[in-house]
Specification:
By secondary structure, the chain is α+β, with helices and mostly antiparallel strands. The protein has two domains: 7-107, Glycoprotein, Type 4 Pilin (2-Layer Sandwich), CATH 3.30.700.20; 111-183, Dna Ligase, domain 1 (2-Layer Sandwich), CATH 3.30.1490. It has six helices and eight strands; from the N terminus they run ααββαββαββααββ. The chain has helices at residues 7-25, 40-43, 71-84, 121-124, 154-164, 171-174, and strands at residues 47-54, 57-63, 100-107, 111-112, 131-136, 139-143, 178-182, 184-188. The strands form two sheets. The protein has a four-stranded antiparallel sheet with strand order 2-1-3-8, covered by helices on one side. The protein has a four-stranded antiparallel sheet with strand order 4-7-5-6, with helices on one face. A hairpin with a 2-residue loop joins strand 1 and strand 2. Helix 1 runs parallel beside helix 3 (71-84). The longest helix is centred in the first third of the chain and has 19 residues, at 7-25. It is globular. The two termini are 20 Å apart.
């Protein structure tokens, strides 16, 4: 992935995410980030996901596919949202904060994946490299590349992604869907 963040930039983003996590559990206002004090790479618009785990189990994951705000602010917003607004989980409590591990994924821009027949799709996506977005009308869902660790076969990956989208798990086999791929630079505490 071109333009990868260096160690210092990664540490800054993880610190921003950790502070947002702590403040969110104390009902405190998030600190204002002075972008001028940050490296340029964190000032430019970037898309990110923040994933929270506790005892190696997912505890929250929120992000965006499109870059619309400075990366530092994007990570701060998603850390708060992963802790307090992921509808799949209860809010993170202050007592849990020390047990929560934070992972940040910075996304490349998504690109359309062209294919002509449904059976071609599993061969077009690259396991452990590509994050995938499936879209069917108004329904849309994504899996980060890290999900390949649990779903190693492209067919299973696509079927679970269809289910996440609220569609039958075999929808990708029945019709052409709008598909995008992207890559991530992920780092964790």
């Amino acid at each position: 992935m071109a333009g990868e963040l260096n160690q210092l930039e990664q540490e800054i983003l993880l610190k921003i995410a950790r502070e947002a996590l702590i403040k969110s559990t104390q009902n405190q206002t998030l600190p204002e980030i002075n972008l001028d004090d940050l490296p340029t790479s964190l000032q430019v618009n970037g898309a990110s996901f923040v994933t929270l785990t506790k005892d190696d189990h997912l505890r929250g994951c929120i992000g965006t596919l499109e870059a619309y705000q400075p990366l530092a602010l994007d990570v701060q917003e998603h850390a708060l949202a992963a802790a307090q607004q992921d509808p799949r989980f209860p809010r993170v409590r202050f007592e849990e904060v020390e047990q929560i591990k934070i992972e940040v994924s910075v996304l490349t821009p998504k690109i359309p994946l062209e294919y002509k027949m449904p059976e071609e799709l599993p061969e077009k996506i690259r396991p452990k490299i590509d994050g995938v977005v499936l879209q069917d009308g108004f329904r849309k869902a994504t899996f980060l590349p890290q999900v390949w660790d649990q779903l190693e076969e492209p067919e299973a990956f696509l079927s679970h992604l269809c289910a996440k989208m609220g569609a039958p798990s075999n929808l990708w086999q029945k019709k052409l869907l709008t598909v995008y791929t992207y890559q991530v630079q992920e780092f964790q505490e």
